[in-house]
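pinned: reference chain
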Amino acid sequence: MVKRTLDEKLAILADAAKYDASCASSGGERRNSSDGKGLGSSGGSGICHAYAPDGRCISLLKILMTNFCVFDCAYCVNRVSSRVERARFTVEEVVHLTVEFYRRNYIEGLFLSSGIIRSPDDTMADMVRIARTLREQEHFRGYIHLKTIPDAAPELIEEAGKWADRLSINVELPTEEALGALAPEKSAQTIRRAMADVRVRREASKDKSHRGTKAARFAPAGQSTQMIVGADGASDGMILANASQLYSSYKLGRVYYSAFSPIPDSSAALPLIRPPLMREHRLYQADWLMRFYGFDPAEIAPKTGMLDLEVDPKLAWAIAHRALFPVDVNRAPREMLLRVPGFGTRSVQRILDARRHRTLRYEDLLKIGCVLRHAQPFITLPGWSPRALPDAEHLRARFAPPPEQMSLF
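pinned: its structure tokens
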């Protein structure tokens, strides 16, 4: 193996970690300053942003412990048959980098994932050593997120939860059939069993004994998972239904969606070409509607099974259900107000609080913070009436981006 400097390892393993989702920041324009004419990058690697349990946005050192892997998953750039540059950190190197980056105020925590080296237990043991060393020897109080390995021994997962704030176990793909076809060395049953074990341990850590003492700490920020989108033929409806089931079964804090990127040297025949990042972005929006707006997955995805890429899922639903609109802002229940495009959870609560005391007018919605450009066709109240709602085609055209002439060259 080529002997690499710490800087070279960091460059390789920080870049390799970009495929592990730790926050929903996709859908934006890709910009970088590699040409020397700017500052910063919107799609770079190495330091990412995530949210702490108290809602703070924090900076994390995001790296792989190694991109060597004994598995040959067809969708993974680090699979054993992939011709990529390889590197591996020692436990001491990861600890050193985390502490030094923290002391320089670059980061507030660590996001650590890894390929599988030697065996799942060996890899997980090294990751646990990193977290334990940071906590016990370096007295590191920052945030730690560990991507755990479902095949690892339960006692290693238990110790990982002792030192880490959050654990995540990837379900990898939306269906068991896809996982069996594209990653035959992995088992959907093993993954879900490990997720269930994390849930049980988390719930047990919240209990108190008959003497009132607390149980041992275990992943207080919860667990999350990642699902690759586009490597198989699953529709958006299937993906959202699976995510909804994961939320209810394992009490996940978050499901992360990761758009599949084909591997240039891949010899595997994958079902789909790379989907646009906008599809990933729409799935995040739809996921938000399920978690905070009371939408069911079957409601969000149209009959085609695929989300509209030109308008957001909430707006698409409202256009498809024009018979329910316009709603009277002063009379509609909370559940219906939440389905009005341009109304968020906070603005709906402000509407409910304000209308207890008086009748709201159109100008009041401006002060409350509603996005009236989206809401206007769907609401009525003193000072505003949409009159007759236009048909679906014209209503959608009002919000969809204008058509563009494609270049032939």
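why pinned: The radius of gyration is 24 Å. DSSP finds 15 helices and nine strands in the chain.
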